[in-house]
Amino acid sequence: MIHARGVSRRYGAHVALHETDFDLDGGELVALVGPNGAGKSTLLSMLAGALEPSTGSVERRVATGWAPQRPSLYTRLTPSENVELFARLAGTRAAGLDLPDRPAADLSVGQRQRLNLALAFLGEPRALLLDEPTAALDDDRRSELWQRVAGLCADGGAVVFATQLQEETKRADRVVHLHAGHVE
Amino acid sequence: MLRRSPLLLAVLVSYPLLIALLLALVAGYANAKPRVAFVDDDNLPETVEIGGRTFHIERTIHRVSDDVVLVPLDRDEAEQQLRNGKVVAIVRVPAGFIAQLKAMQRSPQVELETTRGLLASRVTQQMQALVYSLNRELQDAFIDANLEYVDLILHGGQGTFLGRRFDVLGLERAENRVRDPEVREFIEVAQLALDQTDDALEATANPIELKINPAGGRTWALSAQVQAHALALVTTFLAAVLAAAALAAERDERVIQRLARGLASLGEVLGSKVALAALVAGLLGLGVAVAFGVAVEVAGVEGGEPWSRVPVLFPALLLAGGVAGALGALVATLARDARSATLVAVLVVLPVVFIGIVPREAAPAAGWVSDALPFAHEVRLFDALLYETSPWRTALVEAAWLVAIGVVLVAGARALMRRLTA
User: First vs last Cα of chain A: how many Å apart?
Assistant: First the structure.
């Protein structure tokens, strides 16, 4: 579904991710683990097409949803306005949201994360790239999220998620360890 | 922090110096010579002989030009420029001026028509001073001429008066020939001369009269220049800051990364910011133009507001807003966040505006730099569209400049847009 060849990312003299190959196939649930600054978010951003690789290339063969670690949304718009705007840009239908009707800037961290995830699920993507998706979510929302993820994988879709939590890696079919910009 | 960023340190030191320099140049502009229309309805010759003395018209005009810029114009054009505020006064030499001056019968008039502003009072004072010094010179010539008449009356001889030549007997010779016909003619001429004595003496005392017409035209605050500058200022500041803030805010919120995933290309993101800046600047600029128009109508300013030109102004405002928006977008691609982008946009626009106000006469180099920036072109474009009789050539040239500058700015911003997704 997603194939990366020789992707790396450099910020001036600092190399955030050394040349890496990565493949994601249908039905897979892959966990990216590693300490802070290991390159997990950089790899996910490049797989999502949100960040240009310094070298290499990424091929995405299916519609891909992306939830970055820091929510990427218009903070002056309400949740429904955000969803409607991105749905319109993506040429898809906006799903209903159970979130307060006030600017995203005024939402709690958890509510913003839910909106972030809702944007990732827009357009019913076949592949999902989730960067620490359960951070700030309560237990109910976490189980709701994992149910959706499991359902997608069971349906032939694929999910890559970055996490710091050991227990979450147990859900994965495959665990990829990153350290100082290298895949181990 | 400053040690780590020598560029920031250099900017902090050089920026106030740049602003101070530009302020000095602009302040110098306040003392610049006002433009005064010179309407010559008498086709003044290069020189004129009065009372046996030769006066150089050219030199006299040059003397005035030390204090004001005299612009030779025909009467209609001068009236129009006075209404628009492009000249602060009209000096008119009426037909028959030189003939009247030579005849010395009564004072010919130089007409002065001014606006109401501060510059106009300066022009009035300068014209009064000029006429005073001219009169001093003419007095000498006239007194010499009058003394010749007195001498003629006393001693006799050939003389000219009111264009007629006379053989004058003179009082000395007339004493012995009281019943002589020549004496009778002399008496007739003497009576005629005496009849004119009052006017002649008045003319001698005040050879040229300065007739100051009641103030017409626009006040300075409602002049064409002020309106054009106000419009350019509003569009440049607003559009540049708005585009910079909007683009940088999208980076702060990391929305650009989401958009760049195929929802909108970076070019489309940039284009949308430039279009937003253009639209907002266009609408606000239109509001400013209408507000000026209302003020002009309420104040009963001569010439009124050129309402028919206001709709033509809208596309020009859109263009100017778009170019300033591109400048703001370029700033946003270089700044680290929305707050610094907004601040840097203001700091960039300030000298762009100042350098556009500095007249070329004050600093030619400023004029060259200004040509590469949008502000001065915006001013000339708005000025032409609102107030020039035939605005299209100027408008096309200035619009072409703005398009060229806009293309360069957009290309620069587009090349740096990748920084926003990093």
Answer: 22
Return the residue matching tokens 């993506």. A90
- Where residue A53 sits, what CATH number does that domain have? 3.40.50.300
Residue ranges of the alpha helices (H) in B335-391? Answer: 338-357, 364-371, 374-387
DSSP 8-state secondary structure symbol assigned to residue B215: P
Identify which of B253, B261, B264 has the shortest CB distance to residue A50. B261
Q: What is the pLDDT of residues A158-174, one digit of tens each?
A: 999 999 888 888 888 89
8 Å CB contact between A30 and A24: yes
CA–CA separation, B234 vs B243, rounded Å? 14
Under DSSP, is residue A122 helix (H, G, I), strand (E, B) or coil? Answer: coil
**What is the distance of C-alpha B244 from the center of its chain?**
34
Would you say the pTM of this structure is higher than 0.90? Answer: no
Token couple for B4:
């780590």
> What's the domain range around A15?
2-74+109-183
Residue A169 covered by a domain: yes
Read off the pLDDT of residues B133-167 as tens digits, 9 standing for 90 and up. Answer: 777 777 766 776 676 777 777 677 877 766 677 77
Give the side-chain half-sphere CA count within 13 A for A74: 15
Q: How many domains does chain A have?
A: 1
- Interface ipTM > 0.95: no
- Shortest distance between the Cα of A76 and any Cα of chain B, in A, equals 10
B32-212, what's its fold? abc type-2 transporter like fold (3.40.1710)
A50 neighbors A66 (Cβ within 8 angstroms):
yes
Kindly state whether residue A102 falls inside one of the protein's structural domains. no
Alpha-carbon gap, residue B54 to A14, rounded angstroms: 85
CB–CB of B348/B331 below 8 Å?
yes
Cβ neighbours of B254 in A, within 8 Å: 68, 70-72
For chain B, the structural domain boundaries read 6-28+219-421, 32-212
Contact A70 B254 (CB under 8 A): yes
CB count within 10 Å of CB B137 equals 14
Amino acid at B49: E
